[in-house]
Amino acid sequence: MLPQINRIVAHTDFDGLISALLMQEVLGVEEVAFAESWEITDGSFIAHHSDAVVDLPCPGEGCALWIDHHASNNGPTGPYFHLDSSRKSCASFIHSLWPDRLQKYLPLVQAADIIDSAEYAERDIREPMPAMQVALSLAHGSHHYRAFLIEQLRNRGIEDVAAMRIVQEKYAGVMREHEEFLVSAEERIAVRGSVLVLDGMGLQVPGGLLHFMLYLRYPAVAVSLIISDGGQGRARVSLGENIFMRVNNVNLGMLAREYGGGGHKAAAGCSVPLAQKDEMVDRLVTALNQ
Asked: How confident is the model at residue 47, as a pLDDT?
């Protein structure tokens, strides 16, 4: 018997999108809110006691149900707080809890596994598959757009949804941003040992494929470290493992956790006050080169 749930709170990425869809099916709850991980950890997003929080850090006991798969996250013990870091996606964890009820969504869960664990070949970056196109379109998506996608994915295949004009327009815009950014940011890239450091402060840093596109251009690096403006006097750092080589031995999620962030073994993020940016980057680079 599940507790009373009035709202689902999910991460803004593709895994969060599919996790929200699955939880709507299980709970019969329509209201969904989306949040970034850092909004939970810094308290700028306030969870309610009747929320189901999925694919995000646990807001303590300030929610009714929590389900996640990030190894760097933890929460209270109890029947309604669930963490399984062995899962490639939060969607696959949710599916495992209610497999019969969620069987029809298995193709979406499998797509979330691939995308959230970055199990890509080079051709997937050069020519993204339909699910990845939908995932990339989220970078230009509002709350309304995410709600629209959930409704479409409830009854349509991912290929059909990816082919929709609105999805293709957003996807094309995201890809164009990536190419333009890489040209403008070339002089801001430095390779320090096995780590590529890109200082994007003051620039509009695109989300989505940036780490992977860097690996195509700099195949010898083990990890990429991208710095961007976090707002409110903070710098945000995104860490990613070179998925085409995978020689990094550092758990990036645990490393980011030391700076108030977190994530996966192969992809993570954190933020610090601007005055501490250079010192933090130096420490991260040193740790990653050991």
From this structure: 92
- Give me the percent of the chain exceeding a pLDDT of 90: 84
Kindly list the distances between the CA atom of residue 236 and the CA atoms of 72, 228, 284, in Å, as whole numbers in the listed order.
Answer: 17, 5, 13
Token digits of residue 232:
């409110």
d(CA 4, CA 51): 9
Determine the Cα–Cα distance for residues 10 and 1; give it in Å rounded to an integer. 21
Tens of pLDDT, residues 275-289: 999 999 999 999 999
- Quote the mean pLDDT of the chain: 94
Q: Per residue in 80-89, pLDDT tens? A: 999 999 999 9
Distance (Å, whole) CA 269 – CA 281: 12
Contact yes or no for 103/153 (Cβ under 8 A): no
What local confidence, expressed as pLDDT, does residue 77 receive?
A: 80
Domain ranges of the chain: 7-166, 185-288
Check whether 1 has a pLDDT greater than 80.
no
CA gap 209, 128 in Å, rounded: 10
Q: And the tokens for 173?
A: 């815009």
d(CA 5, CA 51): 6
> Euclidean distance between the first and final Cα of the chain, in Å?
48
Residues 6+ apart with CB under 8 A from 3: 50, 64, 65, 80
Nearest to 116 by CA among 219, 10, 187: 10
Q: What pTM did the predictor assign?
A: 0.88
* CATH for the stretch 7-166: 3.90.1640
Strand order in the sheet with 234-241: 189-192, 195-199, 223-231, 234-241, 267-273, 262-263
CATH architecture of 185-288: Roll (3.10)
